[in-house]
Amino acid sequence: MLAALIIVFREVFEAGLVVGVVLAATRGIAGRGFWVSAGLVGGLAGACLVAAFAGQIAGLFQGSGQETLNAAVLLIAVAMLGWHNAWMASHGRELASNLKAVGRDVAEGRRPLTALAVVCGVAVLREGSEVVLFLYGVAAGGGATAIDIVVGGALGILGGSLVSALLYLGLIAIPLRYLFGALTTLIMLLAAGLAAQAVNFLQQGGWLEAWSDPIWDTSAILSQDSILGRILHTLIGYMDQPTGMQLIAYAATILAMLALMQAAGMSTRQRRASSASAAS
Amino acid sequence: MTLSIRDVAFILAFGMAAAGAARADDLATYSLTLKNHRFTPTEIHVPSGKPFFIIVTNQDDTADEFEMSNPAIEKVIPPGDQGKVRMRPLGPGRFPFFGDFHRETAQGVIVSE
User: Fold this and answer.
1) Are A194 and A17 within 8 A, CB to CB?
2) DSSP strand E in chain A: where?
3) In the prediction, which pLDDT does B46 show?
4) What are the Cα distances from residue A205, in Å, to A63, A224, A265, B32?
5) Residue B104, domain extent
6) Residue A204 is nearest to which of B11, B69, B86, comparing CB atoms?
7) With contacts defined as CB-CB under 8 Å, which chain B residues touch A66?
8) Which of A39, A55, A119, B53 sits a CA distance of 20 to 30 A from B60?
């Protein structure tokens, strides 16, 4: 039971951190419950599919199918987070300053929700497929009794959800005027960390060979395997032995997101200025 | 500016563009077998500075994950299946690996010399 508990908890906890950030980022937006749930359910279904076809997936791309899938899925999450932040840069001010705007364009308001639903789904898919494979294996192998697995798995899910809830509560305790900036920064670092993880899978899969040596090693100070190391790894992409290419991906993601947000914010201001001059 | 699917696709393409690298497959290959949640052999010796493959055969009826922290490797191997792990050139030293789902028993080390 303990083995099941630990492994399920570890995976659910990592997905839970991402879901916690998404919940905080969507606070107060109508319909978020539906979209986040849709992301979770979709992710779970995807996890079962990935687990069921694990053998076939692994066989793709000369044995690098698993790495390729992981990298692709991570890059989708990075793109969605970038989209969300750019959208917030162009609409967030309107939403905050003009309450009428909130109801004005429901269809538009839904767009970052779709992106964030995908992010939740991807997090659950990645961590969930390992849980499914592991639990299925334990169940089929008879290494533990069914009740042990159910209890261990349930406790793991409960613990992971608790982490998610704690992070959410911690984030929404941030005063509202700082929350927007804090979440924008957090989502940017989350995306940068995911991009660096994607690079790791691309390197492992043989798609990317340059600069694959670690630049430094801080595992003696803070191991990525420790609880704090895992939290920081998931949330802001802490790596105890980052390779050159991972650092480049991390920095490039931050720069690209800043540029995108800048561009999105600027074009909104222009649009507003031109509509104001047209009105006068 | 509202971001369209096209923009998202562009961002994705940007990420994947860096990925079109050559894939050499004529490399030295080392085999590991996982049975009763233990690796055989528990130690493999490889020459430093050369890339290689490790093929992990999982003979257990449970899944496991071949994992290393340095270099960072994780590869899930379904029961009765094989996993082909591509390893970058290692400097001299000892590089431990383990089966993440059965960490207590599934352990070994790559010795690069």
Assistant:
1) no
2) none
3) 96
4) 8, 21, 37, 19
5) 24-112
6) B86
7) 75-76, 83
8) B53
Cα of first residue to Cα of last residue in chain B, in angstroms, is 56
Tokens 């990420």 locate to B15
3-state helix, strand, coil in chain A (%, to 5): 85, 0, 15
The amino acid occupying position A65 is G
Weakly modelled stretches of chain B, pLDDT under 50: 1, 15, 17-24
Count of CB pairs separated by less than 8 Å, A with B: 135
Residue A53 lies in a domain: yes
Tally of CB atoms within 10 A around B61 = 12
Q: Does residue A11 contact residue A127 with C-beta atoms inside 8 Å? A: yes
What total number of domains does chain A contain? 1
**What residues contact residue A136 under an 8 Å CB cut-off, 6+ apart?**
A51, B63
**pLDDT tens across A45-70, in order?**
999 999 989 888 988 888 889 999 99
Classified as helix, coil or strand, B83 is strand
Q: Nearest Cα to A268, choosing from A10, A63, A91? A: A91
- CB of A207 closer than 8 Å to CB of A68: yes
Neighbours of B92 (CB within 10 A): 10
CB contact (8 A) between residue A267 and residue B1: yes
Count CB neighbours of A98 within 10 A. 10
